[in-house]
Specification:
single chain, mainly alpha, 2 domains, 76% helix, 0% strand, flat
């Protein structure tokens, strides 16, 4: 198994896990996370294109189909709907100028493919948009802005840190920095590089080739969840310092808790009415 294949398992593990988590968030009313879930699932499929088996071949067919359908909508490609000028025709070896380039016809399916492809490349901005929607729809916008800002900021910081230690690309960004030249950070970087080489090497068992990248993916997911949790705690402390009772506010904005509260009040009223209507002899 090559380093690329090891990386694909790592990407598949974290993308599929985040897809499931975002499906759960969507079911709980955070509808923008539905698009994030689809984008993460698409990234998981893209990761499988590195596999040299039937699954990898099917993944490549899927990715190629998405790319082909999305191409006419790609605004970064100058040849989408343009015509070939004389100079361009000469440079490209075209027989005549003024011939429309074969980028394909724009279709609704192609637009959907383009949106999916774009969303897959911009998962974090979509998560930020989700946070913005929460702030915009909250009764206490300032408190919710603090909640989202602290939680997402800490989450992205934790993910960026994990990326720099868990992946070869991330390690390349910091290995030449002064702080990474000595001490425990250097040891961690060297150890992670050895683990990657072992997972991709011939000496590693099939079990090791699978479990090592998946454990790395789990570590990344835990870093993301942990960062979000720490950020949320920081937000709670800030809001409490402002005099906002965070847990009470959460219950107040939770429709389910409001329904439960109303039901409890109704039950208490019924019990009081029954008690008042009982004859004195019965009560004694």
């Amino acid at each position: 198994m090559s380093l690329a294949a090891v990386a694909s398992l790592y990407n598949l593990g974290k993308s599929s896990t985040f897809a499931v988590r975002n499906v759960d968030k969507t079911a709980n009313g955070d509808y923008v996370r539905g698009l994030v879930a689809v984008a993460q699932a698409n990234n998981g499929i893209k990761a499988m294109t590195e596999w040299n088996n039937i699954v990898g071949k099917q993944a490549k067919r899927y990715v190629n189909a998405i790319d082909k359908a999305a191409k006419p909508w790609d605004l970064t490609t100058k040849t989408c709907n343009a015509t070939v000028s004389g100079t361009e025709a000469a440079a490209a070896g075209a027989a005549t100028a003024g011939v429309a380039t074969a980028a394909g016809k724009k279709t609704f399916k192609g637009l959907a493919a383009y949106c999916l492809k774009t969303a897959s490349n911009y998962v974090n901005p979509l998560i930020v948009i989700s946070g913005g929607v929460k702030v915009a729809t909250s009764n206490d916008k300032k408190t919710e802005a603090i909640n989202q800002g602290c939680a997402l900021g800490a989450m992205f910081t934790a993910e960026k840190t994990a990326y720099k230690f868990l992946t070869p690309e991330g390690r390349a960004l910091i290995q030449n920095k002064n702080f990474a030249q000595k001490g425990p950070i250097k040891s961690v970087l060297n150890t992670m590089a050895k683990i990657d080489r072992y997972a991709a090497g011939a000496k590693s068992s099939k079990f090791g080739k699978i479990t090592i990248p998946l454990l790395k993916a789990a570590t990344f997911v835990c870093a993301s969840i942990g960062g979000y949790a720490v950020g949320s705690e920081i937000a709670d402390k800030i809001n409490e310092a402002r005099g906002v009772k965070t847990h009470a506010l959460a219950k107040k904005n939770n429709p389910a808790s409001n329904i439960t509260k109303k039901n409890n009040i109704m039950k208490e009223n019924i019990i009081e009415q029954d008690f008042e209507q009982q004859p004195l002899e019965y009560i004694s």
